[in-house]
């Protein structure tokens, strides 16, 4: 499958990324067209790394001097076989070898990688300027999260390192992260990542329903519905889009048709924080809450979040005005909202979504 997208490109340095050979004391040069390939791929969400036979310190210093070191994750600069370097990079990023590409001017190095890792796609240095034009380096959609994928990865690495060394209680660690959540009305630009979230969040999806781009687009234009997107950040950097909420506003009741959060942020209790916020806003608006819930094999955690927030299966007259879900096994969970305290570990900012609305 030659067109399968490349998720990570691993670069050789001497006479591939730069012109010249470091060890021979050449006057090294980073061609503009190569720098442009690096920044272009980065902006498309394609991660990059280095596999080079050199001494680490001087090679890395050279990349820093040109201001491009930050583009390369998990660099492998040393004297081992390149196939092992590429393998460690792919494993470190948790990518299949088929999602990894390798570029090197030396035919023997390409052959060595291809022999041990036949799924890795290999390119010559001559092909570098053309890489951004190839389909495997051209994602169909580049979401906001893709654009900041490398920074999210780097933030996560720093976060994990601090977590490892943190000895206090969990709550204290969460507080030390200075987590900030934003809840905003989704726009056209958010649709791709909202759609992706509904597709990829099977554990934390309250109905298991996957909304297509077209369905979401219709709901964005529908004054009776709110499509909300949640993003999370902390002092290490962005977590990106982590949650989506779909609410139908009815007479006296808000029907939560979908609540899905990314598995990446379960540890921060993001789902519970979103629910807490929603319950508080519903109380302020004087409406009941009804949530569609359809048990799947994987979303028990979401049921626990609803139960924990106080939702029950008790009957209430308000459900008569709610839309009937398409799936017969969908339940209506119900709550008479009460005011909620702000969460202790995440600061929530929401634009004036509820209750006023002037459409
Ligand atoms: Zn009710």
Automatic annotation (TrEMBL):
Listed name of the protein: Methoxymalonate biosynthesis protein
Gene3D superfamilies cross-referenced by the UniProt entry: 3.40.630.30, HAD superfamily/HAD-like
């Amino acid at each position: 499958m030659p067109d399968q997208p490349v998720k990570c490109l691993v670069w050789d340095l001497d006479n591939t990324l730069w012109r010249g050979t470091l060890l021979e004391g050449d006057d090294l040069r980073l061609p503009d067209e190569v720098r442009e390939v690096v920044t272009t791929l980065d902006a498309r969400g394609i991660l990059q790394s280095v596999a080079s036979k050199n001494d680490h310190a001087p090679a890395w210093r050279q990349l820093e001097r040109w201001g491009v070191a930050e583009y390369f994750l998990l660099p492998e600069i040393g004297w081992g076989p390149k196939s092992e370097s590429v393998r460690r990079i792919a494993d470190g990023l948790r990518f299949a070898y088929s999602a990894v590409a390798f570029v090197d001017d030396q035919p023997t190095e390409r052959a060595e990688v291809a022999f041990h890792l036949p799924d890795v796609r290999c390119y010559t240095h001559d092909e570098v300027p053309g890489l951004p034009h190839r389909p495997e380096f051209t994602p169909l959609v580049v979401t906001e999260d893709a654009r900041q994928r490398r920074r999210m990865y780097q933030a996560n690495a720093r976060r994990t390192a601090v977590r490892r060394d943190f000895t206090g209680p969990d709550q204290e660690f969460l507080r030390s992260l200075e987590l900030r959540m934003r809840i905003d009305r989704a726009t056209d630009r958010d649709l791709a990542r909202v759609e992706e979230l509904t597709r990829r969040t099977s554990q934390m999806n309250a109905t298991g329903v996957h909304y297509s781009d077209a369905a979401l687009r219709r709901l964005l234009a529908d004054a009776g519905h709110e499509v909300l997107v949640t993003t999370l950040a902390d002092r290490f950097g962005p977590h990106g889009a982590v949650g989506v909420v779909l609410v139908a506003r009815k007479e006296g009741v808000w029907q939560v048709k979908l609540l899905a959060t990314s598995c990446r942020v379960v540890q921060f209790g993001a789902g519970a924080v979103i629910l807490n916020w929603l319950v508080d806003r519903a109380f302020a608006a004087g409406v009941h809450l009804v949530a569609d819930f359809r048990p799947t094999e994987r979303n028990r955690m979401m049921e626990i979040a609803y139960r924990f927030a106080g939702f029950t299966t008790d009957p209430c007259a308000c459900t008569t005005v709610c839309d009937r879900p398409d799936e017969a096994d969908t339940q209506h969970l119900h709550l008479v909202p009460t005011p909620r305290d702000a969460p202790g570990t995440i600061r929530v900012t929401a634009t004036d979504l509820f209750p006023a609305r002037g459409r």
